[in-house]
Design goal:
With 82 residues, the protein is mostly beta strands. The chain has one domain. It has one helix and three strands. Strands 1-3-2 form a three-stranded antiparallel β-sheet. The chain is globular, with a radius of gyration of 12 Å.
Length: 82
């Protein structure tokens, strides 16, 4: 899905667990939840309300590449700065 444009997609029931969302345009996606284990970067455009959560619940795994924690446990000790 890297670079995918999912403009206005409805993702009810979609499984994006561990998806590569680098550069994905998700801003107008409806009913999306934060996909655990997904990778993303600063070019990923999250739906309203998910960008901050993605940053809070992710770790940098390579320069400029982040992964949402699989276990979904919030670790506020090292928040991602994007």
């Amino acid at each position: 899905m890297s670079g995918a444009d999912l403009d206005s997609a409805v993702l009810v029931g979609a499984t994006l667990h561990r998806a590569d969302l680098r550069g994905a345009i998700l801003e107008t996606v409806m009913h999306m939840t934060l996909p655990l284990g997904a990778t993303w970067d600063s070019h990923t455009r999250w739906p309203h309300g998910l960008a901050a959560r993605a940053a809070e619940e992710s770790d940098e795994v390579a320069p400029g590449v982040y992964r949402v924690r699989d276990e979904g446990i919030l670790n506020r000790a090292n928040p991602v700065r994007v």
